[in-house]
Design a protein that fits this description.
It comes from Ileibacterium valens. This is HTH rpiR-type domain-containing protein. By secondary structure, the protein is mostly helical. It has one domain: Arc Repressor Mutant, subunit A. 70% of the residues lie in helices and 0% in strands. The chain is globular and about 35 Å long.
């Protein structure tokens, strides 16, 4: 859950808002490596396409793929910062 909170914090998104829910859903899909097309994502996440497009627009990303890549980069930075168990 820490990484979701970090992502939400990084982009200044309230976790209780629609945007926070979208960010969380994107995170979950990313973690399972099963990101569907936009229509299917909206159906599974129970959000409207308008809400998703508004989120992408307000977050300053050109499209959803940019958003996913940014999330992936942030996750990698966080994982590298975590101590490794050996």
């Amino acid at each position: 859950m820490y990484l979701v909170e970090r992502f939400v914090s990084l982009y200044q998104i309230s976790p209780d808002s629609t945007n926070g829910k979208i960010a969380f859903e994107l995170f979950m899909f990313f973690r399972t490596k099963s990101f569907p097309n936009v229509k299917e994502f909206c159906r599974l996440a129970s959000i409207s396409r308008t809400s998703l497009h508004r989120f992408v627009s307000e977050s300053g990303f050109f499209n959803g793929k940019d958003l996913i890549h940014s999330l992936e980069d942030d996750l990698k930075r966080n994982e590298m910062a975590l101590p490794k168990n050996s």
